[in-house]
Amino acid sequence: MSTTVLATKLFPPARRSGLVARPWLLERLDGVLMPGHRLALVSAPAGFGKTTVVGEWAARHERVGWLSLDDGDNALPRFLAHLWAALPGLRVTPPAADVPTMAALTALVNDYADRADEQTVLVLDDYHAIEALDVHEAVAFLLDHLPDQLHLVLATRADPPFPLARLRARGQLMEIRVDDLRFAEAEAGAFLNDVMGLRLAGDDVRALEGRTEGWAAGLQMAALSLRGVPDVAGFIDAFTGSHRFVIDYLADEVLARQPAAVRDFLLRTAVLDRLTGPLCDAVTGRSGSAQVLDELDRGNVFLVALDPDRVWYRYHHLFRDVLRARLLAEHPEELPRLHRAASDWFAAQHLAPEAVRHALAADDHERAAWLIQEALPEVRRARQDAMLLAWVGSLPESVVRRNPVLCIAAGWSAMMAGELDRMARWLDAADAALAAGARDPELAGTWADTEDLRTAPATILIYRAALAQARGEVRATVESARRALELAAAEDHFVRGAADGFLALAAWAAGDVEEALATFSTAVRELHSAGNLVDEQDSAVVIGDLWLAAGRPSRARQTFEHSLAAATRNGEPYPRVTADLHVGLAELDRELDDLDSAEAHLETARILAEQGSITENRHRWYVAMSQVQVARGDFTAALQSLDEAEKLYRRGSYPEVRPIAAMRARVHLAAGDLAAAEAWVRDVSDAVTYLNEYGRLTRARLMIRRGEDAQELLDRLQADADGRRAGSLLEIGVLRALAHQVRGDRAAALDVLRRTLAAAPEPSQYRRLFLDEGLTLPQAEEAPVEPLTERELDVLRLLDTELTGPEIARRLYVSLNTLRTHTKRIFTKLGATNRSGAVRRARERGLL
After folding, report:
1. What are the counts of helices (DSSP H) followed by strands (DSSP E) for the chain?
2. Of 227, 453, 718, 728, which has the fewest CB atoms closer than 10 Å, so is most exposed?
């Protein structure tokens, strides 16, 4: 539907016979093919022949792609779908709905960059129709990265928001402006007499050219109006003034000279952006529209053919505007009927965006609501979020409130905006609508019978779980998610996956990481069964975060890298989660003190995330960058990054385990500004919960820096984390050691480190944790480790062979589970994460 490619947008206007030759303009446009030129800009007000000139030029060249833009292309996915269809010979597959824009465009650019001898041009006609910032950014990105083999031509009424001055200074811009497009006297004469068939004297041509100032549309309307006029000079003297005045005056003249049936056809079809015979038949209520369009085309009555077969047309924009104004003035009562007829025709063709637009234009909100409900599944699959929100926002609130599915969509819209109270009100409205429908069959009969309606009760509970999770209400999250599971049928995989996901997030918020990992794995399987690949891919970020909380950075890295490989398999464009995976890898590299690699991942993420990162994660890039800046000692920049993170942060489903304010306090601590840190720390809650843990650990750091005893606080935090979060226990142990070191008790510090490292699953994966606190990992590794038992030494020696795990178990006459227990204990004592690492560390310590 919304991403269906309209073939009529991909053809330049069909070339008419008898065009006025303007070879010098065509030669100017040839300049865009010269080395170094990126953009040809044809910019002038309406009616100066921009499309005609560019279309004639395009017809003379091979490998020219054409895309006629309209208001609908302000939806980025629709724009990209047509862009891909317009480009000739593009070998990259069209981007899926979840693919970040810059990643998709990068693949496009790389494809053309590989073709050394092929020159390709993309024409974007009517670029002034574009207002959406994300579409401008996509074209600007393409313009900035064009290879020498690919060039852009833009025809527009207004200059686009691109750095034209920079392109001009670099010699990369070729321009055709209004003064270039004006018809000179000789060209005006050729047009009026040779093309339009008039026999005007030189003085009349000169006067008309002067009155219209060489404006092609004015000359055309004047020529149509002059047919059969006896007093040519008097006619020419009768109009003057601005283009707007000339349009109104001459359009009246053109309309007045049409037969009544044709004039009626023109007015009633003016509600359409594109015209074809069957559609016009439906709107006008009569047959033979295809023949009328053909006659108008041959009569040069401001009709533009949109395909070579002349099946689809549009009116000249200025002429269409005049027709609509006349229709509104003369037959305002007809507008709703005309739009409803158009809506019905588009709906029958399964073109939902056009059907909904005309229903809304007809003020037929009930019809629009029905169409929106039917379109929802496809809109969701195509990730047309902006379109859905615009639709719901165009409906009166009273209409939305009567429909549970639309209430849910409105609640989702509020959640995306971070307006949680408004979200709650819409969910209440959804419940009320369902209850009203149960009492009133007539009301329920106005709802489309869709899957969304059937699962609405469970979906409402899913969104209530999301709302509770965003507010930090763990118990309410669990209650709503469990009730959703009870309502969901076995085949409702998406609902079940979402419910399990929120149960996992609630376990995470409660600090039970092992439970969260297990439950989230179930959620991912359900999402996979539902075919919801976007959410399945997004889950990798959460799973990686959970492994970090479990003290297993290597498992987090494995998760990120596996998902990254899957996302880029077979050279396909990146899904949106890729940016967030790179941020995750940057945080892991930062912890390993590999700051160059961390910055490289962040730069990749920055490019990919411009249109593609998960909404709730957009602040994390700045958080990760701030940590790298802290590691480099640039505390001012780190605070600025956190300020940017705070602007982007939206409360959502993910637990807020690292509050930005607490991170800012830690930067102040690192910079030695204890007063600034204390200003935040004194407001930290005394409650010992996982959601408060980061702030409480920040308070412990401040207490240690001030020479205060933090042991009681650390004891309470350790008791809460014990057996549930190895990552927290490692940090708590480091702070205990730091407290002893600050007091000058090195032996006690080493003892605490010894016991902390022995218990940590992967202590070697943490370096900045020690460096940021004034310790070094070599210092930590000096701490004596618990010696290996004789049996563990036997296992270690066999690990230093080519034997497999089952073979070692048989050699030692133990079960495989027992062998795994011994191996895990060996890894813990040696601070290793795998077999080869354990062997290496054993050799370093002289154990082998």
Report:
1. 47, 7
2. 227
**Which residues make beta-bridge pairs with 68?**
125
Element (H, E) at 3: none
Q: Strand pairing partners for 78?
A: none
The answer to whether the beta carbons of residues 152 and 39 sit under 8 Å apart is yes
CA distance 292 to 281: 10
Distances (CA, A) of 387 to 6, 67, 372, 392, 409: 18, 21, 10, 9, 12
Q: Pick 65 or 577 by higher pLDDT.
A: 65
Q: Which amino acid type is present at position 287?
A: S
Distance CA 389, CA 409 (A): 8
DSSP state of 787: P
Dump pLDDT digits (tens) for 264-298: 999 999 999 999 999 999 999 999 999 999 888 76
Instruction: Output the 3-class SS for 689-716.
Output: CHHHHHHHHHHHHHHHHCCCCCHHHHHH
Give the predicted TM-score (pTM) of the model: 0.60
pLDDT 10s digits, 779-809: 544 544 567 787 888 899 898 888 888 888 8
Residue 194 placed within a domain: yes
Written as one letter, the residue type at 523 is: A
- CA 620, 622, 624: angle at the middle one, nearest 5? 70
Q: Work out the mean pLDDT of the chain and round it to a whole number.
A: 85
Q: Does residue 29 sit in the same domain as residue 165?
A: yes
Domain range for 175 is 7-181
Structure tokens at 560: 């990120």
Q: Are residues 737 and 756 in the same domain?
A: yes
Over range 519-534, report the average pLDDT. 83
Comparing 249 with 63, which gets the higher pLDDT? 63
182-203 average pLDDT score: 85
Q: Are 489 and 537 in the same domain?
A: no
Closest CA to 538 of 519, 516, 566: 566
Q: Are 242 and 210 in contact (CB under 8 A)?
A: no
What does the alpha-carbon distance between residue 231 and residue 286 come to, in Å, rounded to a whole number?
38
Closest CA to 782 of 690, 844, 728: 844
524 shares a domain with 538 = no
Structural domain includes residue 303: no
762 vs 660: CA distance, rounded Å: 26
Closest CA to 402 of 370, 358, 379, 364: 370
Three-class secondary structure assignment of 584-642: HHHHHHHHCCCHHHHHHHHHHHHHHHHHHCCHHHCCHHHHHHHHHHHHCCCHHHHHHHH
Q: Based on the fold, state whether residues 609 and 579 are members of the same structural domain.
A: yes
Listed in order, strand segments (DSSP E) in 297-445 are: 303-305, 313-315
Of 732, 764, 784, the residue that ends a domain is 784
What pLDDT is recorded for position 236? 74
Q: How far is 660 from 569, CA to CA, in rounded Å? A: 35
Please identify, among 530, 564, 582, the residue that sits at the C-terminal boundary of a domain: 530
Q: Retrieve residue 632's tokens.
A: 């480099």
Residue 267 included in any domain: no
Do residues 525 and 401 share a domain? yes
Residue 611 pLDDT > 60, yes or no?
A: no
Q: Is residue 372 located within the same domain as residue 383?
A: yes
Structurally, the chain folds into a number of domains equal to 7
Please tell me the distance from the alpha carbon of residue 515 to that of residue 505, in angstroms, as a whole number.
10
DSSP string, 519-539: HHHHHHHHHHHTT-HHHHHHH
Average pLDDT of 744-768? 86
Q: Does the pLDDT at position 169 exceed 80?
A: yes
- Number of Cβ within a 10 Å radius of residue 298: 11
Residues 821-825: what's their mean pLDDT? 82
| pLDDT for the residue 742 | 82
439, part of any domain: yes
458 and 483 share a domain? yes
Q: Are strands 150-156 and 39-43 parallel, antiparallel or unpaired?
A: parallel
